[in-house]
Fold these 4 entries.
Entry 1:
Amino acid sequence: MIRGLDTLYQSVNILEKRQENTSANIANIETTGYQAKELFQSTYKEVQMHNYQGGEDNDQRIDYDGFTYGNYIAGSYLDSSKGALESTGRSTDFAINSDGYFTVRMSNGQIAYTRNGNFELNDQNQYVTQEGYQVLSANGNPVTATTTGTPDFGIVSFDDDQTLQSLGNAYYSSQSAGTQVASPNIEQGYLEESNVSASDEMVSLIQTSREFEANQKALSATNQTLDKAVNYLGKI
């Protein structure tokens, strides 16, 4: 019975993390270039249950069926599918219509990557993000606006997008430098919308809510069993 409480605690903890993740995805439906984050869970390895209540002296081991201690969050992955392109008509808006990420230098000097091409120009006629981060070229220099052709943005791709770590606001970091895309397909006057599916996230939210209710009922039943064991069994 005590083990049941522990298993329920783990289950509710998983549901809380799933709900937080779903809420974060829903909150970023309108965030340009945002990529949905998904969690996946696994089951703990089965262990053998036993006791030593066999034999005349209750000192012989008796093996029972296997038992699992519930599930756990095994990790997360980034949904790297591309969002739809939205025409804005602004000359400082860009969308990557291929694999890869824009390279930017954040205020603290850290290199980050994003598919959000909602840029503007600073006083030096250089492209910067809405947060003021410098947009970099393939050689690591700030990109200056040109009157002809597509600016020389440094578009970087990764062998495995799952190695990217979210920094928030559709920015990602990576321990590897990635690979420069030789001929990226960049659309000027467009932005890539978030790839979050509102309907899928709402279904996930409803499913999580129902699982919360099921765990609440299981907790109530376990509590009633413990109450009888503590308050009534000893009187027999």
Entry 2:
Amino acid sequence: MSFINMKPGTLLSPTPVVMVSCADAGVAPNIITIAWVGTINSDPPMVSISVRAARHSYDIIKNSGEFVVNLVSRELMEVTDLCGVKSGREMDKFAENGLTPVPVPALKYAPAIAQSPAYLACKVTQAIDLGSHTMFLSEIVDMGIREDLMQDSGKIDFVKADLAAYCHGEYTGLTAPEGFFGYSVARPEVLKRRLDKK
């Protein structure tokens, strides 16, 4: 099968669906949806988000130097979409969507979203202007996982979390796992134990 050459663009898909919450001194908490988010380092744990300067949250994040990446379940997809199409200049996204801001001990201003399955609290270490967006390189300084998602083994039950993904302009739920890191070389009994679980 041959390829069709196209103009370069942001084709990388799917990406996580996240709501980024932020606040600053004297500035009400806000939520921005971010498609450009990703892990960039493991020690220390770091993520990056990229934000257009015109967005309401841009100055809040730039001035406060902190934000929270809130993971999104399928249940939160419609609320997340509304947070993406409406501006925090026009509405209180927490109040309008029935979302609850909760303090994060490691941060001074930015709250997490109580309804999210999990959150990553981040402090900005560097801001890089890339053109259409500014990328905020950030260290993860705290994480919260909904209590019912923690298994006795200490693992997080991401299947139960029912996370959503964003794929080329559309939201989609995730399917049950069909593999795991190292499954291509795993012994048959390991495959059965890991993949036959319901």
Entry 3:
Amino acid sequence: MELMVPSRKAHRRSLMVDRDVLHTLAVAGAACVVSLGLVYVAYFVHVLRVARNAPCDSSSGDCVLLFGKHAPGGERDAEFDARVARGAALWHQRPDRRVLLLGGGPPDVPTEAELARRGLLALGIGGHVPLMLDTQSRDTLQNLRNARDLLRAGQLDGRVTLLSSRYHLARCALYARQLGLHAEVCAAEPRLQWHAVSLGRIAVEAAYVCWGDIGTRWARLIGNARMLARVT
């Protein structure tokens, strides 16, 4: 029987009462405060550089990991459509590569992975394409943990291509590295858009990357095996 996937709000509420999440969030926040914000600024610059410099093609990935996006009511937005269109373009460049669609969804709504599959079908990617779907994950870390399990089950241990929106790629790359995936990044959009909305999303992603990186380093420093098991 298929597991029940929580809604996005329910998943976020569960994280906000998780002691390991709160622990690492406090440590990352303290590092930013003690450094007078310089630690956060460094992560912001890193996320911005990845977003600006990421290629929008892929030459070496044997499997494309196409990240889904929050889709209220089961409707893709322009960003989601851009990811799907880039995924179709990558497959047309190399039809031999596998495609793994990532993302769950709340009950009674198509999952993000299913919405991506429908988008690919609409773009002419037929049923003969070896698509794999992860329909259980609710955030980026879960996306990649489930992807790693599916890749291992399929004995796919080569290089993977992380396909997402530019602002999201630094977080994808961080988690992939922590989980031991040999990965490259690929941007859905042809170039970074320099406007307030884009920079705001990069600012939010910088906070996630700061939290994820410092939290993992802290878990290693104190030897907390339970924390490390969640991110490595």
Entry 4:
Amino acid sequence: MSESQRRNDRYGETSLRVSGAPFICLAQDDPQRAKDDISEALGKWSAQGFHVQHYYALTGQVSADLYAGDIDEVHRTLCERWPALRRSLLLRVQLVRTLTNDLRGRVALAASLRNVGDKQALLREASRAAAQIEAENMPWARPMAILLRAGVQAARGDTGEPIVALLRDALQGFQASDMGLHAACVRFWLGKVSGGDEGRALEDSARSWMEAQCIKNPERMAILLAPALAPK
């Protein structure tokens, strides 16, 4: 980023500040800094239209709110910005479409647990997001859909073996796709759900992996990726 600043490269600087940088703040357990940095960066960017920088900023802001547990704010932000995102045509890009559906599903799950709107409607929204991700027919996307479905079942009160089976399936998919953070978060929740010595070993393994990646609050990171699996 300093190189972009030195060259007065507003495009490069803004892109870096609203894409990867917020998630570094979340790894440091500082969601407020992530939101402040995004706001400052967008203040120097065009307010016209909806560019890829606006998409990155939306993803970062929603993720920071979700991480912090500001569910009223996160649901409002996503609902307000969704029409602009659709008009931008960025959802024609498979990666953007898939990651955005995953984020939309996680926000719906988190909102359903806080009664931010109609719970059953929100769970249906999360299920639709999972179905749209599955329709992409991509090996790396499939475990995201499975994890959302596990969240829907957990939010509806299912426990035990049905959730364990879904989490094991998601874990296998994330590992096969080299998605280390997702795999660690699934191991964390699989450990919580399974219990016993095996469960503790899974949870400890997940914590150790995340701490080795300089993630200061493994549980909050796990909640970010699978909010409905957190203890009620």
